[in-house]
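Q: Given only this backbone (406 positions), what sequence would you predict?
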């Protein structure tokens, strides 16, 4: 489930929504939700995805605080890009790091390099991992890798599952946190056991750490200690840090040097990337220090949501996990996704408060699932504010359910 799966083709506003195709309905709802997010007085998170081109360009006005803007522009990965790579390597405690235009490319390259060194192209990973769900079989179709699924359960894999895997694998890939299971992390002890189990199998360990930045509160450890458990780590610059895009692969200098060769072969040696690199440096400067605060407040928001939904008298509801591991978590409701999505957007349009700002997944009929993200704007919400927003939302949810089923 992702906002980016909803089409952004312009759909005329006239005409009843019932007369539109499914794709047109999704597009119209995406536009309404984006408009509601821009105009809402209160939101739990504001991200660049909801902004305008003018606003995103304006966000670089402060770039002089993180890099000398009188330096020459980057050409094929030097200058500001190299500065960003050094910054990431220092934060994660690795010998080196390489900038990539996408995380999909970064992880394929990393695991391809490890496969070449180990002689084994099999990668053990979770069935809900990003490469299995969101990358159109890129591992096998592009990079000659062979995914081996450890489990499909909506939880992190266990060390015993790693030990019991019925075939050899060259690398263990762990997504931290596991987004599609509810942004779940193992405990620190469980993570160490997973890594040790992989070592027992003579496998390297790679962290899909797109949102690893958010994990320090749950683990109670600094970033470099967490990353130090793995042989290589990928991190994203736009998911947690609100950069324009981009990713980094961090690890041993020899691996990173080889990865840069493959980056060129994969078409990732982009001519100039200074806007993206500058936005990443700003994210590391401004957002990274605040992520622990977002995580702690997400727990306040989640508790208030859970209590208010239960008190509202709905058949049932679920906040998952009950105590969020990061500043993002899931909410489940017993209604069709279209009904809940319309109620959420109406609430924002009519009250100026956007409680649920992301798309609703309706893969299972009669069940709707969304994700809640708490960032700087969410820190202004008290538990009582959350309760009031839930009350407004439930009124419209019942109205929409009655309209559809009445």
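A: Predicted residues:
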């Amino acid at each position: 489930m992702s906002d980016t799966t909803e089409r952004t083709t312009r759909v005329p506003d006239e005409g009843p929504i019932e007369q539109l195709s499914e794709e047109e309905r999704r597009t119209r709802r995406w536009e309404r939700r984006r408009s509601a997010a821009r105009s809402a007085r209160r939101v739990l998170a504001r991200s660049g995805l909801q902004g305008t081109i003018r606003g995103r360009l304006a966000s670089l006005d402060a770039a002089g605080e993180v890099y000398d803007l009188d330096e020459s522009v980057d050409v094929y990965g030097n200058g500001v890009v190299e500065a960003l790579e050094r910054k990431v390597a220092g934060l994660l405690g690795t010998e080196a790091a390489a900038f990539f235009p996408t995380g999909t490319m970064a992880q394929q390259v990393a695991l391809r390099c490890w496969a070449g060194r180990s002689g084994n192209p099999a990668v053990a990973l979770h069935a809900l991992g990003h490469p299995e769900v969101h990358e159109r079989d890129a591992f096998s179709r592009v990079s000659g890798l062979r995914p081996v699924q450890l489990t499909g359960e909506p939880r992190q894999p266990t060390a015993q599952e790693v030990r019991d895997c019925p075939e050899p694998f060259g690398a263990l890939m762990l997504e931290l946190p596991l987004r599609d299971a509810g942004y779940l992390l193992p405990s620190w002890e469980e993570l160490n056991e997973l890594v040790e189990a992989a070592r027992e199998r003579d496998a390297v360990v790679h962290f899909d750490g797109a949102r690893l930045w958010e994990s320090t509160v749950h683990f109670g450890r600094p970033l470099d200690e967490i990353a130090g458990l793995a042989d290589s780590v990928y991190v994203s610059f736009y998911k947690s840090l609100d950069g324009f895009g981009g990713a980094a692969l961090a690890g041993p200098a020899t691996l990173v040097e080889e990865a840069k060769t493959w980056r060129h072969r994969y078409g990732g040696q982009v001519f100039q990337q200074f806007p993206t690199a500058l936005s990443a440096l700003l994210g590391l400067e401004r957002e990274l220090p605040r992520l622990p605060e977002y995580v702690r407040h997400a727990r306040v928001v989640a508790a208030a949501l859970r209590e208010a939904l239960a008190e509202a008298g709905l058949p049932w509801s679920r906040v998952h996990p009950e105590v969020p591991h990061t500043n993002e978590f899931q909410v489940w409701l017993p209604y069709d996704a279209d009904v809940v999505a319309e109620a959420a957007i109406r609430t924002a349009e009519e009250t100026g408060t956007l409680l649920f700002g992301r798309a609703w997944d309706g893969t299972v009929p009669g069940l709707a699932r969304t994700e809640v993200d708490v960032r700087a704007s969410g820190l202004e919400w008290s538990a009582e504010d959350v309760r009031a927003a839930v009350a407004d939302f439930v009124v419209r949810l019942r109205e929409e359910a009655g309209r559809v089923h009445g």
